[in-house]
Amino acid sequence: MADDRPIGVFDSGVGGLSVLREIRARLPRESLLYLADSGHVPYGEKTPDFIRARCRAIADFFLERNAKALVVACNTATAAGVAELRECHPELPIVGMEPAVKPAARATRSGVVGVLATTGTLKSARFAALLDRFAVDVRVVTQPCPGLVELVEAGDLDGPRTRALLLSFVEPLLTEGCDTLILGCTHYPFLRPLLERLVPPTVTLVDTGAAVARRLEDVLVAAGLQGEGVATTGFWSSADPQQLQRVLPVLWGAPAPVRRFAG
Length: 263
Ligand code: DGL
Known about the structure:
By secondary structure, the chain is an alpha/beta fold. Helices cover about 45% and strands about 15% of the residues. It has 2 domains: about 5-95 and about 210-260, Rossmann fold (3-Layer(aba) Sandwich); about 100-205, 3-Layer(aba) Sandwich (Rossmann fold).
């Protein structure tokens, strides 16, 4: 029997829309609720305790709306909070995400992989464990990118400030010999067109959005939770809803109303 309850998807801000697009493309009959916690962005510079508190509040919000599953569309929130969320809600399927070290280690020919991610993700025990497991026979060079998320939040995807900041983060990785760059934060796929202009064509860019959508599908199938309804997508923001509404046509591909999340 079909389960047409919605799926809750969240990020510190607009970054998770890069994952939401993949989910919508893969699961056209699922209703989706998206929450941008833009009132508390960037998560990358916050403490794990703070991020865990945000994860709890947002999960409660989705459960009040009868969500059947949750997607943490944020590497930083996954690193800090997904384990606790799973402990608190053992009955709820929860899909998290982490930088794509495994596919990048497979893709590199130079043997040097670069990771662009938030300070919080790169400092986390979860990321260290990921490297222990998958960065076998490759060298991984990490690059925190403070300031980049705020520019994406503002919708500045290729202005001079974004270009200069991105270049300052990417240049050291290229100097180190990286031929594969992991976009380890869900805000960064929106910078892919700019990034492609800044790096040589031989450099491979790897992100995780499509893999998360596939994983979500597998989880829904395994739990017998697939929807077959007329899909809807609802948007909430913990900052001024107008701000998200302004960037939705570009980042989501269509305008949509945005409601305020006061939690
Ligand atoms: N988009 C988030 C991630 O995937 C977090 C960005 C931030 O708020 O610092 O890591």
